[in-house]
Amino acid sequence: MTDDVAPDFSFALNATDGAARAGVIATPRGEIRTPAFMPVGTAGTVKAMLVDHVRATGADIVLGNTYHLMLRPGAERVARLGGLHRFMNWPRPILTDSGGFQVMSLAQLRKLTEQGVEFQSHIDGSRHMLTPERSIEIQCLLGSDIQMQLDECPAIPIEQDKARASMELSVRWAKRSKAAFADMAAPGQALFGIVQGANYEHLRRESLDALLALDLPGYAVGGLAVGEGREEMFRVLEFTCPHMAADRPRYLMGVGKPADIVGAVARGIDMFDCVAPTRSGRHGQAWTTAGAVNLKNAQFAEDNAPLDPDSDCPASRDYSKAYLHHLFRAGEYLGPMLLTWHNLHYYQQLMAGLRAAIANGRLAGFIDGFKRATGEAIV
Question: Which stretches of the chain score pLDDT less than 70?
Fold first, then answer.
């Protein structure tokens, strides 16, 4: 174990089934069972959820967003108030992204240079500079347990020469992020590198080789779920995951829908985050063992059955589909709250099922059952 992997941050691989892995990430604030899904708490809150309810779904870790928190309320303010864990009343692990993706997708009048990204806030038009060093500084002020290097995340498709230039810039930023992290991080915190290279196999390998040389505690696959489609995403994972460090966590950023997660776990991914369960919940869509259901549809107006009568989640068990339909039709806040709670519980149950299947060597059967129940094709 190197100096970059703090003694109180570690990863234990406990079982494999084909390429799929089940393990535990240990952090000073608790263990993270993998495969793990991280609910997205963009601005210091998982939308429409109390933190106690988030934990009750089975979540071991949540995600916070550097871009949004640096703009409002400000990382320095969060630090003065005791850090993000205390601020949002979540004592368990938090992963923060670098802010780079949001700068590219949300900010106005952005200018990318070797130094970093200068951008105009989408909130009030104020100007900011996000560099690898500033991103790490913000994440350290927030006090997150797992921090991400600043990278550039281009959309797919992209020309090969542009993908190479972007990937090489991200590698240089990874080196700067590591140096800044060494100066500013607290014991037990960990820095993950991000593999880029679009959908070009040789570029992904070059990116990964350069990051592995930095000997970081974990590695993410970035630049996917940006419009390339599920089949292409899986193809990239198939030629990337086998070369990733077996003894470090593997994180697929921004993914995804349940079928995306199941297929990515089968290809060797350990960690996921996505707004799908919370965003869907706010718009009337429930994820269930039989697939996605739109509770706004008129067919549910007199359906007295709950979403899942056998669930230990109150939102899934104790409210009828007719009532949920009514709440959304009436514009009541309780509708998004209950459906978000249900969706996050479903996602965590999916992860628990995947972990158990891997541990028992029955992943293929689990996937077959998932495909039959949902009608999803997992290529």
Answer: 1-7, 379
The enclosing H or E element of 287 equals: strand 285-288
Burial of 186 (C-beta count, 10 Å sphere; 0-12/13-18/19+):
exposed
Q: Phi and psi (nearest 5°) for 144? A: -70, 150
Strand partners, 37: 272
**Beta-bridge mates of residue 33:** 24
**pTM of the entire structure?**
0.96
Query: The sheet that has 108-112: what strands, in order across it?
Result: 108-112, 117-120, 127-130
Both ends of the chain: CA-CA distance in Å? 37
Which of 177, 182, 232, 183 has its CA nearest to residue 204? 232
**CA 308, CA 287: separation in Å to the nearest integer?**
11
Task: Please give the single-letter amino acid code of residue 378.
Answer: I
What are phi and psi for residue 14, nearest 5 degrees? -100, -25
Which stretches within the chain are classed as H helix?
51-56, 66-71, 75-80, 84-88, 100-106, 132-142, 160-184, 201-212, 230-240, 258-266, 276-282, 314-317, 321-329, 334-359, 363-374
Give the C-alpha separation, 281 to 76, whole Å. Answer: 32
Q: Which domains does the chain have, with CATH numbers?
A: 10-275 (3.20.20.105), 282-374 (no CATH)
So what's the pLDDT on residue 7?
54
The predicted-structure confidence for 93-118, as pLDDT tens digits, reads as follows: 999 999 988 987 877 788 999 999 99
Positions marked active-site: 97, 273
